[in-house]
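Complex record, two chains
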Amino acid sequence: MSQPLVEVQGLCKHYPVLGHRGDHLRALLDVLRGRPLQRQVRVLEDIGFSVLPGQSLAIIGENGAGKSTLLKLVTGVLTPSAGTVRTHGSIGALLELGAGFHPEFSGRDNVRMAAALHGLDARALAEKLPEIEAFADIGDYMDEPVKHYSTGMVVRLGFAVIAAIRPALLITDEVLAVGDESFQKKCIRWIDDYLAGGGTLLLVSHSMYHVQKLCRQAIWLQHGRIAAQGDVFDVSQRYLAWHETRQRTTEGSPVQSSPYSDYAIDSVDSNGVEPGQSLQLDMGQTLVHDVVLRAPADATPVLMCGWVRADGTAVYGTSSEIEGVRGQAMGEGRYRYRLCFEDLPLLPGAYQLRTHLLDGEGLRMFDTRVTSVLVRGASRELGVTRLPHRWIGPSEA
Amino acid sequence: MIQGAHRAVFRELLRREFTERYQGSVLGVAWHFILPLVQLAVLSWVFGELLKARSSSSDLPYPAFLALGLWTWGLLANAIGRGLGALTENGALIGKVAVPQDIFIDTRIAASAMIDLSAFVLVLMALAVFGYLPQVSGMPAMLAGLLVMGLFGYALARLLAILQVFLRDIGAAIGHLLTLWFFLTPVIYARDQLPDYVGRWLAWNPAAAPVEAVRAGFSGLPVDWAALAISAVTSVILLWASRWLFARARPHLEDFL
């Protein structure tokens, strides 16, 4: 069982560029001469991974990162430009919805074709057909041409075929995104059961919920290269963090200037990390925020601290003025504040801890520092923070 | 060419080929027999009655002479006509399942050959009704002629179907070229009716020998086996070329579909 089901090494894929009139002819001449195409774009570069039997691997990334191309290469629909893909055992693939159904033919006809493509003979298909019909649950539409189907029905039928065939390796590309709630649940239940029974899964999805629910490993593709690879929570959180940061930078970052030299943030230290750097924490760890502020001789500066998600959503904020705390005077108008966040309940993800300096009345903001905080963890809870809660057992009133 | 695992796919595609072409049409497969019959009637009338073409060197009436040529030619023309788009029109399926792509060309040509050959049998039966029976001694020549024409059409259709993936110009031009080719093939006339220098040039047309072999075989006339052999060798060379091209193009086919 130690032999990998999928072994990918140094995989590259280049697509031809066919924008101009002469490109087709030039490409044909290159093909005839058996040399690489001259005008091409690199879609995947140097991809390497392996999937052992029983593993579940998610491939995540932005649109156009090369996820679908990678799946097509593993399935064997595309031929690599360089590198190798080795697969063992039967592969069931649902690529870009629909598994290659012909729109003019009825669902039943298409099921027959799909079965043939998966090496099922007529008798085996006859046995499986009731199961397929039950799973797809599209009723009389089974005998209608597929072109009359809704997108969801196409996916239902496609998934039903795969479910009946139970391949050694299941490859799905954004299949769950289309079905309705109950069908999604059905699919997830089936995949859960399939994985528990030793099945192997290769999944492309933009839903981190599905990714984290179904997969243990993940690969983050970015511009055709592997940006991160490993444990699903690690990779997906880094991916989300990157997303949020990118979103925020395109929306414009907060001003960080200090026009009044009398007021200034002297130093900020969060568990030993300075602003501008990235602090990594495990969920539930304790964070000590150590800030030194400077103010004119006659004023006491106010420290305000705020947590925001990397996309700018406010999480929590408080200030020394709200809580009636006075900083520790260090002479020369300098004040030290130490703020401890014990057992930080933030859910895994990317956050910013913003440190603001306000005047004595807490009205004007003079200076701001931002520390990026990445909270790590394997929680699948939703939202921003873990609210205190407990489950009430059946024996309690 | 087709491995065991793909036999079921081949069968399924073949079944599809028959149903797909006639889905929603009332007459179905009958179209495949009606259209050539209309063509036969028009050509017989124009060339036989108006232009007084004759089937020289045999006692066959002109419509029978024409029918034998027309259905032999059809083997080539339909193989190309159907096979040409086999890859480009199946792009959606080819992009989602991993089977050798030439299976799509092969099934289309197989279906079209099956229809054409059964139509040819119908032609023979119709001729028999009117009292024109094929000569038993000419049977090998007829079979050889049909076989060579089928092989020639198969090889050419495969080549063109692959080239069509890269150059869609082929699809645009092929209809007109086939019409021209039809007139350069001795289907509506016999080569010995032409001036000698033209007739000699037409011998270079690989489609000529099979048509002539089928007709000569039917009437029990001497068959130009050497010419038929040259057509056969040409077909084999083209078939080899199509396989070479497929091997070269296969890694790129999907990228261009």
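Note: Confidence is low (pLDDT under 50) at residues 252-260 of chain A.
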